[in-house]
Backbone:
């Protein structure tokens, strides 16, 4: 398992946390992978497909976060929490399972619940800002 595939697999796990692998969340995964790794659409789709298999085959999140910690220094992990929240919130909903996963992942990445809350609030504010800037339909 490479660090890149572990990063992608945990994004998939976040999207699947509430047992609804929503197309909006799939698209958000591709956006995050493109931004994080500088990949084009085909490479994002290929990495996501690989990550979907890896996520399904990985029993618990400890193995994924261990690989992620090898490639993401501590100072970069809050940005990764924002990536995870971006995927979770892409469908406009928040579920208990997703909150639970984020509490676990935050801890496993050496961060606090407060770091996850700040990341979520940041993403929610950005999403609200983006909605406010959309032109009204006529």
Residues:
């Amino acid at each position: 398992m490479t660090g890149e595939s572990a990063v992608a697999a945990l994004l998939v796990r976040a999207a699947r946390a509430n047992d609804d692998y929503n197309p909006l969340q799939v698209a958000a995964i591709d956006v995050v992978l493109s931004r994080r790794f500088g990949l084009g659409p085909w490479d994002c789709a290929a990495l996501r497909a690989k990550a979907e298999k890896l996520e399904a085959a990985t029993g618990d999140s400890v193995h994924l976060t261990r690989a992620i910690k090898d490639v993401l220094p501590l100072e970069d992990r809050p940005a990764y929490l924002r990536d995870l929240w971006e995927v979770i919130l892409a469908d406009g909903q928040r579920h208990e399972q997703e909150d639970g996963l984020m509490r676990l992942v935050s801890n496993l990445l050496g961060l606090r619940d407060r770091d996850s809350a700040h990341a979520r609030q940041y993403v929610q504010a950005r999403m609200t800002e983006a909605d406010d800037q959309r032109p009204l339909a006529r």
